[in-house]
Design goal:
heterodimer, A: alpha+beta, B: mainly beta, Nuclear Transport Factor 2, Chain: A, 56% strand
């Protein structure tokens, strides 16, 4: 499992940098920004694979989002963030590649269309949000929040 | 609508009842739902999701070893979900179980 560096303190405000490594599975270039799509199955697999470093600097939309939301977004890329602090918020988001380009060679392929990509990120965030709800404290309104009678 | 691995259908109201009953069950240690595949459809999206839950149990009957020992049970199931967009929000329309659940005992956390 890929674990974000737990040695850094929880972010308070301003830029926030946190590092994690994972195997690259795809990369998407758009308007000068590069989004790295990674797949990581477990720590051993990552250790054996060509690792690259990615840095989380700022939100694509410039929004302040919660840590859990960020974790959800990263989870959409296959990055598990098991050591995330759960109470702080920070200005975070898009994932910029800072590793060496050759590390990507031969293993990177184009990903799905932007629409599919965005929907997957959005729905993965919902799945993670649902999973984060503490089931013993689930109320009827919590159950109804993510469902509809159709 | 929910369709289980045997193809039996349950309505949302039945599923809702199950969800509420789950609130009185022993709590999960963790749940991970990861999209394996996503397709856009005219009224929303279809996803194949791998759901992994982990719970700790006390093995009073000695089913997994010494009686009274604690074990972690990791259950993995594959579902096909249908999502629809309603008033700019995603709503889960149906869930179909497309693989039998597999349960492993004392599976290392890193392998999830």
């Amino acid at each position: 499992m890929v674990v974000l560096d737990p040695r850094e303190p929880p972010p308070s405000e301003g830029d926030w940098h946190r590092r994690c490594t994972a195997r690259p599975a795809g990369v998407r270039n758009e308007a000068g920004s590069t989004t790295l799509v990674v797949r990581a199955s477990d720590a051993r697999a990552v250790a054996l694979s060509t690792a690259i470093t990615i840095e989380i600097k700022e939100d694509v939309m410039g929004r302040r989002i919660g840590i859990l939301a960020l974790a959800a977004r990263l989870a959409a890329f296959g990055i598990a963030c098991s050591s995330f602090p759960t109470s702080a918020t920070a200005t975070v988001s898009s994932v910029n590649v800072t590793g060496s380009a050759p590390a990507l060679g031969g293993t990177v392929s184009a990903t799905s269309s932007p629409d599919t990509f965005d929907v997957q990120v959005e729905l993965q965030g919902l799945y993670d949000e649902i999973s984060q709800i503490d089931v013993p404290f689930m109320t009827q309104s919590d159950v109804d929040l993510f469902h509809d009678v159709l | 609508m929910f369709v289980d691995a045997l193809g039996q259908k349950q309505t949302w109201l039945q599923m809702r009842e199950h969800a509420m009953q789950a609130s009185s069950a022993p709590p999960l240690d963790s749940m991970i739902q990861r999209i394996q595949k996503l397709s856009l459809v005219p009224d929303g999206a279809s996803t194949v999701v791998n759901v992994t839950t982990v719970r700790t149990i006390v093995d009073a009957g000695g089913r997994y070893g010494r009686q009274g020992a604690s074990h972690t049970l990791t259950e993995t199931t594959l579902y096909r979900d249908r999502w629809t967009r309603v008033s700019d929000e995603w709503k889960l329309k149906s869930r179909e179980q497309i693989s039998p659940s597999t349960v492993s005992v004392d599976r290392p956390e890193w392998s999830i």
